[in-house]
Design a protein that fits this description.
Helix content of chain A: 25-40%
Order of helices and strands of chain A: HEHHEEHHEHEHEEEHEEEHEEEHE
Strand order of the largest sheet of chain A: 6-5-4-9-12-14-15
Shape of chain A: globular
Largest interface: A-B, 35 and 31 residues
Structural class of chain A: alpha/beta
Largest sheet of chain A: 7 strands, parallel
Radius of gyration of chain A: 19 Å
Oligomer: homodimer
Distance between the termini of chain A: 32 Å
Mean pLDDT of chain A: 88
Strand content of chain A: 15-25%
Low-confidence stretches of chain A: 64-69
Number of helices of chain A: 10
Chain lengths: 249, 249
Amino acid sequence: MLKEERQRTILNEVELHNRVLLTDIAERLDVSIDTVRRDVKELDTENKLRKVHGGAISLAFTSPTAPNNNTYALQEKINIAEKAVSLLKEGSVVFIDGGTTCLELARLIPQRLQLTCFTLSLPVAMQLLSKPNVEVILIGGRISKEAQIAIGASTINELTAIKFDYGFIGTGYVDSLHGLTEFDWDIVQVKKAVINASKKAVLLCISEKLNSQHRYKTCDINAINTMITELDPSNNLLNLFRNHDIRLL
Amino acid sequence: MLKEERQRTILNEVELHNRVLLTDIAERLDVSIDTVRRDVKELDTENKLRKVHGGAISLAFTSPTAPNNNTYALQEKINIAEKAVSLLKEGSVVFIDGGTTCLELARLIPQRLQLTCFTLSLPVAMQLLSKPNVEVILIGGRISKEAQIAIGASTINELTAIKFDYGFIGTGYVDSLHGLTEFDWDIVQVKKAVINASKKAVLLCISEKLNSQHRYKTCDINAINTMITELDPSNNLLNLFRNHDIRLL
DNA sequence: AGAAAATTTGCTGTTTTATGCAATATATTT
DNA sequence: AAATATATTGCATAAAACAGCAAATTTTCT
């Protein structure tokens, strides 16, 4: 195995799980601990990760951007984000919504993938700044303090002039019958606009939210092209969604 | 578990609940109390939190000045920001530029002051989110990775439709003769638009930048209404600016 | 292709760091 | 003041980092 490959593997591991142990990775790659240590040292001096006693941690872990350790159900969300990343193709023009799941998606975009990403979300935009090959376009507007995204008429207006290859969106609540719903009216308005502006709308949603609903409706479930949960697509919990014309991932 | 992970967890806990008990966290992390104690001690000397008898508390808890990291010439910038804050009046509609000085201004806006703040800067917008009485409006656009602000035609276009009471701006270089100049052309374009959109343009600038210049020109010094440095307005270094019709603060 | 040079890798012994434990001291509470 | 909880110190152990060296591999050059 080439040094490059090894270092790539280490980096992937770090980006994915925020950390690695030298011993683990040495065993997995079947090289001596010294080699791994040297690799990590190099990657550290290249500022690709941060070497610490016993292993290495992601830069995101230390830097101001996203010290996301208290995200609820982080593992599930990472799982979802990984599936979403697999949809991305070189040169795609995509929209990434706010919320912790979408933030994970932003975080897991591979360094070398060239993309144009639109977003309404401040944290997502911040996260994307660390991706050298991603052009970041923030759609501005009045900022919602809780959701940390742009909302309001001017925002919606801007959205009408764009078409995304994929719109990756989250939702507060989802139900096979009542579709996507939210607690907040303003948020529903921008989400509607996003879905309209997306050739394909991809819903990222942890299974815990399935079969829940709230006051304001964003769209019918049919408006969603692909739905990603942390579950296996064949899981029984998804049966109700299988009837609709939705791709499950 | 790596030491850094542990410390991260402790920090999160502190930031979240403003305090932790050493015994609690030791049990949760399944390490000895000594280890936690040592971690907390380290974090304390790094000024990430404050160690107290039996546990640790958040910095925000002790000092009103938030946990600021490693800004260059921070004290000067705080000084400038404080003067700028004194210009703010209840209900003002202002623009706040990017850069560390302006970020300090955003940070120092009093909690109870009611304002409408426009900005192009992601960090400034994030900072403003913690101000309950500030309406934050982010002007969107293509995001400059280095400057972390929105740039480009659509951004400039949006700026033409607004008038701010005050536009608080920074600059890369300033000179009494050559005016405000920058290293980056795109940035000059948006700054021009901001100055146009401001009834009064207020320049925030540490004295170190006085009498320096660069390639692209933002505006003449006369376009600036008020100039704030960390120096006393009577300081000799400001003599060259006194001739112009500028208010020094 | 084959030799020489440069790089990479694994191994050795040594040094440093991290952690837990116990004894003692200090602070806090009742 | 006594009882309890928390801090400090020194020490022992294990794990990890480091430095130097030699074997193995890759690259470069003829």
